[in-house]
Each structure stands twice: as structure tokens, then as C-alpha cells.
Amino acid sequence: MSDLAAPERTASAAPAARPKEPPQPRLSRKHREWLAAALFLLPDCIGLLVFVGIPMVLSVVLSFFQVSGFGSYEWVGLGNYERMLGDPLFWDSMKITGIYVLVLVPVLFVVSLGLGLLVKQNLPGVSIFRTIFFLPYVISLVVVGLLWKFMLDEQIGVVNKAFRSVGLEGESWLGDPDIALYSIIAVFIWVMMGYYMIIFLAGLQEIPREYYEAARIDGAGPWTQFRTITWPLLRPTSFFVLLMSTVAAITGGFELVFVLTEGGPANSTSLAIFYIYQQAFVFGEYGYSAAMGTALVLAMVLVSGVIFKITKGGRFDDGD
């Protein structure tokens, strides 16, 4: 009975409603991806604009004024730049910064690469060594400066005591004008080598093992493997380390200089960034220091452009 009644109920029932189609998005997939990317980048862009872009523009504007320190501004045009060109202390600080960069960047590059190659090996306790090498990077530079100021002290410092224990003469590491700058460079390398070691390690781990296995089968030794496999495939990482360490050397180092030597002895460690600080916050020459800061940023951009040009941006296709 139920089977015969079913067609009658179907015939008498109202026609079934069509299922609703899902609403079409107003934006295409490509435009939605662009919108999502823009929203993710927006916080960084706002931060860069507020904390980097606007202060840089204000610094350039300030460089055309003579600021008294009591809120009065006097337009001097290019007067601060003319004063900068005739300031021997400024050029001395730029020369010291040049030596600082030329010594620090290559040594830091080689030490970091060597550590990266070392901790890439499957050695027992290698994770502990990675942590030890990276640990100085997470310590405040002020604390690092105070620590090394004690260790490098001429009379009670640990370094000179270690030298004397083996019959060597101690040095005035921070008091000798010929040594003080290199002492600061050594401390900065000690701080930063772990950070760049991690970057090199990441680049080394991206190189496929099959390349090394094939090289060993062909009879290539460790040096040949480094020269023909590791170094070419590590170029993008090397470019990044070279660029970042150069920028850090030109614009950084202030904390260590301030704590260790305060620019002395005899201005032998007065980097450009420290001289700019002195003119602004010790002597109240805000307009003049803004002019020197602008010149330092332009020098950094010029050096970065040269690095881009020489290394071709770290590309593999160096045969162009």
C-alpha cells in the first residue's frame, strides 16, 4: 500500500526549490591575495614610516637650521654642511670609521663562516657550542661593554693576568691609542659572530648533500668541495651577511665606544656615530649633528650600492 501511495504524494507536492548558489565574491582571487599581502605588510610599513621615514626627513630639514637648544631655529641653508667640510674632527671620525669597517667586516665574515662550517658538522654536543657562540648576541651591549672593560683593565683585568701567567707583557688595551680601536673591534666580533654564524648555518643546510656525495665519489677533497660547491651556493647568504655587517659597522658601535673608551684615548676611537652624538647631546649642536648624520647615511647608501654592484646582489649567474 505504501508503495502505491508514494507516486500520488509526489505528484501532488509543490516543485522542489532550486538550491541557492553561493554568493560570488566581489573581488577576484588575485585581488584578494593582494589585499591580504597589503594588510600583512601594513603594520611594518607604518612602523618604518613613523620610526624611520619621518625622523629621517625631519633630520634632513633640521640640518638646514641652527638650533640653539632653547627652541629657537635659525635658517642657515648649507651652513652646517660647509662647517662639516671644514671640520678636521669630523674627517678624523670618518677616517676612524673607515678603518673600523675595513677591519671589522672581513674578519667578522671569516670568523662567522668558519664557525658556521664547524657547527654544521655532526659533532657530539654541537648544540651546546651553537648556544655558547650565540649567547653574547642576546646580551645587552652596555652589559658587554662593562664586562670587557673589567676584563681588559690594564692592572686587574683577566686578559693581562692571563698574559702575565705565561710570561708575556700585558697591554693597555683601552688606554693605548694604537690598540684601543682594535680592542673594540675584537669585542664587537665576539658579540656578533654567533648571529652571523646562525645565518651561515642556515645557508649551509640548504645545500643538498647529494652534491657533496657526488664530489667525494669523484675524489674531491674538503678544499675542492668548499671551492666548487659550498662557496658558489653560499653566495646569497654571503651577500646578506656582507651587506648587513657593513651597515651595522657604519651606523653601530656607539654603545661599546661609549662604555669602553668614550671616544678616547686622544679621539682614537671616536667613530662618526659617536662624534655626532657628542655634537648633539653634549654641545647642543642639533642642526650641525643632523647635517653630519645625513652625510653618514648618504655614505652608507653609497657603500651599500657598491656592494650591490660588486656582488651583483648575490646572484648565481655571475657570467652576465
Automatic annotation (TrEMBL):
<dbReference type="InterPro" id="IPR051393">
    <property type="entry name" value="ABC_transporter_permease"/>
</dbReference>
<feature type="transmembrane region" description="Helical">
    <location>
        <begin position="239"/>
        <end position="260"/>
    </location>
</feature>
<dbReference type="InterPro" id="IPR000515">
    <property type="entry name" value="MetI-like"/>
</dbReference>
<feature type="transmembrane region" description="Helical">
    <location>
        <begin position="99"/>
        <end position="119"/>
    </location>
</feature>
<feature type="compositionally biased region" description="Low complexity">
    <location>
        <begin position="1"/>
        <end position="17"/>
    </location>
</feature>
<feature type="transmembrane region" description="Helical">
    <location>
        <begin position="179"/>
        <end position="202"/>
    </location>
</feature>
<feature type="region of interest" description="Disordered">
    <location>
        <begin position="1"/>
        <end position="27"/>
    </location>
</feature>
<dbReference type="Pfam" id="PF00528">
    <property type="entry name" value="BPD_transp_1"/>
</dbReference>
<feature type="transmembrane region" description="Helical">
    <location>
        <begin position="34"/>
        <end position="65"/>
    </location>
</feature>
<keyword id="KW-0472">Membrane</keyword>
<keyword id="KW-0812">Transmembrane</keyword>
<protein>
    <submittedName>
        <fullName>Sugar ABC transporter permease</fullName>
    </submittedName>
</protein>
<keyword id="KW-0813">Transport</keyword>
<comment type="similarity">
    <text>Belongs to the binding-protein-dependent transport system permease family.</text>
</comment>
<feature type="transmembrane region" description="Helical">
    <location>
        <begin position="286"/>
        <end position="308"/>
    </location>
</feature>
<feature type="domain" description="ABC transmembrane type-1">
    <location>
        <begin position="94"/>
        <end position="307"/>
    </location>
</feature>
<keyword id="KW-1003">Cell membrane</keyword>
<dbReference type="GO" id="GO:0005886">
    <property type="term" value="C:plasma membrane"/>
</dbReference>
<dbReference type="GO" id="GO:0055085">
    <property type="term" value="P:transmembrane transport"/>
</dbReference>
<dbReference type="InterPro" id="IPR035906">
    <property type="entry name" value="MetI-like_sf"/>
</dbReference>
<feature type="transmembrane region" description="Helical">
    <location>
        <begin position="131"/>
        <end position="151"/>
    </location>
</feature>
<keyword id="KW-1133">Transmembrane helix</keyword>
